[in-house]
Write a structure and sequence with these properties.
Strand content: 5-15%
Order of helices and strands: HHHEEHHEHHEEHH
Structural class: alpha+beta
Largest sheet: 3 strands, antiparallel
Oligomer: single chain
Helix content: 40-55%
Length: about 190
């Protein structure tokens, strides 16, 4: 199989498959035809270059490669779908951020940082979206569940790994307790 055929075959596979495909999976699909792992990588790089100036792009996310529209066209294309995009509450987003940045983390630890109880619906929604999962249990009395993010979270947020999350300075951490103390000091 020549390079052009391999590139076309990989392009077709990525287009046809509903989920991202990893380099290893693509190699497994075409290995019987004499395709090497480096050949797959080279074809993917060439495809990425081919789509540099088009309305779609080939991106590498946590679970593999996929085609997607360029982010700058998102608003213009939103009218194609009748559904409104889901709006998430501030509480849900804060909970997701805490899990993403401090995983593994228990529900109690999330509540301690946020200063309010975490609704069961928030945890349920995050699990239904497959953005978080139970990754273990903390070795303390009561053995609370530990939550962490999933590969689906990385895929949906266009990340290959957690190190790509924007950095946040936790050195000046404000907890509910310190916020209340600061507020009381201002009113005195």
């Amino acid at each position: 199989m020549n390079k052009k055929q391999l590139k076309q075959l990989i392009e077709a596979a990525l287009f046809a498959h509903p989920q991202p495909l990893s380099v290893q999976r693509l190699h497994e699909l075409f290995e019987a035809r004499g395709v090497s792992l480096n050949g797959v990588r080279s074809a993917l790089k060439s495809l990425q270059d081919d789509y540099n100036d088009r309305g779609i792009e080939l991106v590498n996310v946590a679970s593999g490669f996929r085609f997607q529209t360029r982010p700058e066209f998102g608003e213009l294309l939103a009218g194609l779908w009748q559904e409104r995009p889901t709006r998430y509450s501030q509480a849900l987003l804060e909970t997701l951020a805490l899990i993403a940045y401090r995983q593994p983390i228990t529900r109690g630890e999330i509540e301690q940082v946020r200063g309010v109880t975490v609704s069961s619906n928030i945890i349920k929604t995050l699990q239904e979206r497959q953005w978080i999962a139970v990754v273990g249990q903390k070795e303390v009395p009561g053995r609370p569940q530990l939550y962490g993010t999933t590969a689906q979270f990385l895929d949906d947020f266009n990340l290959t790994n957690l190190s790509e999350l924007p950095s946040i300075d936790f050195s000046d951490e404000t907890t509910a307790e310190t916020a209340i103390t600061e507020r009381d000091d201002l009113h005195d």
